[in-house]
Design brief:
This protein has 218 residues and is an alpha/beta fold. The chain folds into two domains: 6-167, 3-Layer(aba) Sandwich (Rossmann fold); 169-209, ProC C-terminal domain-like (ProC C-terminal domain-like fold), CATH 1.10.3730. The protein has nine helices and seven strands. The chain has helices spanning 6-17, 33-43, 51-57, 70-79, 97-103, 135-146, 159-167, 169-186, 191-209; strands at 27-29, 46-48, 60-63, 87-90, 109-113, 123-129, 149-153. A five-stranded mixed beta sheet has the order 3-4-5-6-7, with helices on both faces. α5 (97-103) links the parallel β4 (87-90) and β5. α8 crosses α9. It is globular and about 65 Å long. It binds NADP nicotinamide-adenine-dinucleotide phosphate.
Length: 218
């Protein structure tokens, strides 16, 4: 894994707790020594400040840096010497497969878009396969993102729509919940009760709508 921030740690902790990988399987590249120490202590994984260590020794590279850090990491990819091309799985919002594939010529690449409920194992992720990614690469990517919730595979042309809907959706839903609670407070409820009512109503409605037949695709 390259990048041990919010999403990186969410994926890391669930991949370990779900048994998809063992701590010994994982090497994390992360520039901050403090962050490296926290993550290695909490998850018993190996960490490094040099991304080349990760790139040159891994079969799968999960890229979880901010999109604006991609050009720096791309230089690491360029100078790396890999015995066999690893699978690159990127969760960078808005970085297309063409740009990812140009940074790692000949490698299989999967572009993925998880969302923040992944941190509690209730995420929704979409994956799109690059031109050199085969069905077994897709299956492996599905296995990785299944550890943090549900996964769908889509053509890359749909990834911006995915980013707008499930990638950004938690932000919209949080505002709806806040607005419901505010409405309750304005109608005389104590804040803690209004918050509980709003939260459970949205959670329960989502669970109800998941029941077969509740929503018919048209
Ligand atoms: N959060 C979401 O809802 C969400 C949803 C879907 C996809 N994503 C995608 O997930 C990615 C990560 O987002 P995030 O929220 O986890 O960001 P984040 O918390 O800022 O994590 C990024 C991590 O990458 C590290 N980093 C920076 N430069 C690096 C380098 N050259 N090599 C290795 N690591 C480096 C950062 O370290 P420092 O802090 O020390 O710089 C930080 O720990 C983004 O591309 C975003 O588009 C996020």
């Amino acid at each position: 894994m390259i990048g041990g921030g919010v999403m990186g740690e969410a994926l890391l902790s669930r991949l370990l707790s779900q048994g998809v990988y063992a701590p010994d399987d994982i090497l994390l590249g992360e520039p901050s020594p403090e962050r490296r120490q926290v993550l290695s202590e909490q998850h018993s994984i190996q960490t490094t400040g040099n991304n080349l260590d990760v790139i040159e020794t891994s079969q799968v590279i999960l890229l979880a840096v901010k999109p604006q850090s991609f050009d720096v990491v791309a230089k690491d990819f360029k100078s790396a010497r890999c015995a066999a091309p690893p699978l690159l799985v990127s969760i960078l919002a808005g970085v297309p497969l063409a740009k990812l594939e140009a940074a790692v010529p000949g490698w299989p690449v999967v572009r993925a878009m998880p969302n923040t409920p992944a941190t509690v194992g209730a995420g929704m992720s979409a994956i799109a396969l690059g031109s050199r990614a085969m069905s077994d690469h897709g299956a492996l990517a599905c296995k990785i993102f299944s550890a943090v919730g549900e996964v769908v595979q889509v053509p890359e042309v749909m990834m911006d729509a995915v980013t707008g809907l499930s990638g950004s959706g938690p932000g919209y839903v949080a505002i709806v919940i806040e607005a419901l609670a505010d409405g309750g407070v304005a109608s005389g409820l104590p804040r803690d009760i209004a918050h509980q009512l709003a939260l459970q109503t949205v959670l329960g409605t989502a669970q109800l709508l998941q029941k077969p037949g509740c929503i018919r695709p048209s």
